[in-house]
Specification:
The chain has about 400 residues and is α/β, with parallel strands linked by helices. The chain contains 14 helices and 14 strands.
Amino acid sequence: MIVLTINCGSSSLKYQLIDMKDESVIAKGLVERIGSKEAVLQQTPRGGEKKRIQKEIPDHKTAVQMVLDALTSPEYGVIESLDEIDAIGHRVAHGGERFTDSAVVNEDVLHDIEACCEIAPLHNPANLHGITACMKLMPGKPEVAVFDTAFHQTMSKVAYLYGLPYQLYQKYGIRRYGFHGTSHKYVAQTAAEMLHTTTEKLRIISCHLGNGASIAAVKYGKSIDTSMGFTPLDGLVMGTRCGEIDPAIIPYLMEKESMKIEDIDKCMNKESGVLGISGKSSDFRDLEAGAKDGDERCRLAIDMFAYRVRKYIGAYVSAMGGVDVIIFTAGLGENSGTIRKEICDGLEYLGTSLDPELNLCHGVAKEISREGSKVKIMVIPTNEELMIAREAEALCKKNCVEAVS
């Protein structure tokens, strides 16, 4: 089976064409600046050179058409026709409480994704654009929606409810949803495979650390808690997001700085986090360089980030009654041995023992704890696209079996 994965942002579209026979990537690409006259499509075929096409792309439907044209191009394409694509898997940011798993797209599913746009206005509309464009351009092909929030739907009310009046949860669905679920699920499964066991036998803390960052407590295969909340703003200090704060700060700033709610939203989402603390950058590579040069605020930003991650790890060890594996993933978690060491220093009471040499690795799946470490420490590059493709393949095969029976 060949699966096309689509990940639509507000002005971008990432895609991969994956042969599920051996889970190899036939081609991958990115469309940027959708809605602009200077939009760009870049496609890299397996074992080939990157192709770059610049032209006006007014909307997501045009972007999807460009992707399909690029994949089937006689000059630089990788398949002869769209008939070779068996299914399309779509990343969808928010499934609310409606979706506890991935779903084959139909009118009801489309309606429910649209209903979640209110609580994910930056992501779900773009995800919908990608789905509807593919449905129009490839009618009859199975479309599967894979939700970032679905993996966390195993949390209990004790974990996901806020201390607000219960009727606000009943009326508006205000609760902790969590995000990066596809990533947390993928790395948890991969860790179990590497350790020659199953997730049902492990207590895992998954640290997805990038510009957006979240931590998940995965107990015996199920997410029982996660740091992001009603929106991706909650939890850790991130690249530009503040993470958890005293909510009373919001009306205080509105009064003292004459800020409107839009100003507050911009401040918390785009001007805070390690960028706001350092005053220099949201990129940890810049912060590490600044800290080495003696920049105290860069050092402070790194220390705050590591402290918050350690604090969540400790909380989730308590929530799960122990921990067997700690995973680092995503751009920062996969590539910065410095940050991993900062986080692990002080966790020795859990029985962790980080190997300094193994911790020098970048972007490879590897155990980085010393032999004999009570808690395994692992680096696992995330692969949300492959997880989306796996989900699409599984649902398509399930539907075929059910249709035959």
